[in-house]
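The material for today's practical consists of a large collection of protein records. Read left to right, the backbone structure tokens trace the chain's path through space. An example says more than a description, so a record of this kind follows:
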Amino acid sequence: MFPSLTRSLVSKAAPLYPIVSRNPALGTVIQRFSFDSKNVIDKTLSTAQEGFEKFSSLSIKERGDLLKNLANVLESRIDKLAELATVEMGKPIVESEAEVKKCAWVLRHFAETSEAFLKPVPVETDAQDSHIVYQPLGVVFGIFPWNFPFWQVYRAIAPSMMVGNVYIMRHAQNVPMCALAIEETFKLAGFPDGALQNSFCSIPTLHEMLEDPRVKATSLTGSVGAGASLAAKAGSVLKKAVLELGGSDPFIVLKDADLELAVDNAVAGRLLNSGQSCIAAKRFIVEKDILKPFTEAFVEKMGRVKIGNPMSRSVRVGPIARKDLMLGLHDQVLRSIEQGAKVLIGGTPMNRKGFFYPVTVLTDVNEENTAFTEELFGPVAPIIVAQDADDAVRLANKSDFGLGSSVFTKDIEKGKEIALRLEAGQAFVNNFVKSDPRLPFGGVKKSGYGRECSQHALFEFANVKTIWVK
């Protein structure tokens, strides 16, 4: 039913099978896959176009019923899907289970709420009848990352499918088995052929697919470089794109903050998904009056976190998803140290099988330091001192990114005022940043553009059409 976790095809020649499923906790190859041929890709595109004709003809209620079926499929297979994510990209098993449950939530949310937002909207004009309707664009080409291999996909497709679009999915090359499992869930839920298809396309072929007239729009969650490249290509063929490109989220702790609450959220916000989350707290900006007690409590709690086999229910931090990512993270730490940062705990790759990096806390990090200017995708937490609340806001906004942000203070009105000043798509007061199907998700600056989740996501890939009758 779902891809086997034990079947091994490691004897296949690596150059011919460049898509590699590898267990990051062990460093061992599970299975290899080849890129799709041009004939296969053409068939995928044709099937998607045919699927769009069928799927878009369904009523909103019928599409919603299919999404509810899909949610039921996920919940009935949560153990298998969660294990697949943990084995293939290293997410702690408890978090993998939570991810699958959240996917079911987002599917049901849009199944139950979309119709109210997609109804024709009458507008009073000098016409006999004038109103707005929302129609699908067609085939959307979605490019997805490995860090939340299920959530990123279902979150993106749920609102778009309620409008009537269909998807071709190009998943990250290190989670091919998750991609195949996602494709299978749509079949089990009874979606028509072509509603969602996986494509093992190469990067050059990806651009060719975007040029194909059967593809009407695209979305990408990934790096700034990948987003810029895709945006340039989409722009050259005048196709709509939605981009979510990560962040370097500020986590502000003001001097009047509840220290225990701030520390608990700092640990949770930094270590979610072993630190490999676009909305993880990544720059801890602490007002000088509370710097010492916060640092001491934060280091003590971070130091007690259990790292190890992600299949263990007691483990909080698993491996980094790939070796190159681990080495890149360590390079950032080394450069930060060279530039004056001090290591309070961690700072060296762990001497064990797999791609494990220890929980690391850096201090004496200034605004020119690598740990401040670059996104750290792993369990590394730099602490930056702010002179006062205004300085904290200045430091928070001194970033190329603008995805999430949070501020901790007992003065709720002050927290709200600072939230409005933060240059980010999300600003949380007294909590670390979380995505929620009911609220828009996306960023500003180099964190991308467009929104997923909430009613705003419904209109990203919709033809918002004016109907005017004399």
Remarks:
- The two ends are 56 Å apart (CA to CA).
- Residues 93-118 form the longest helix (26 residues).
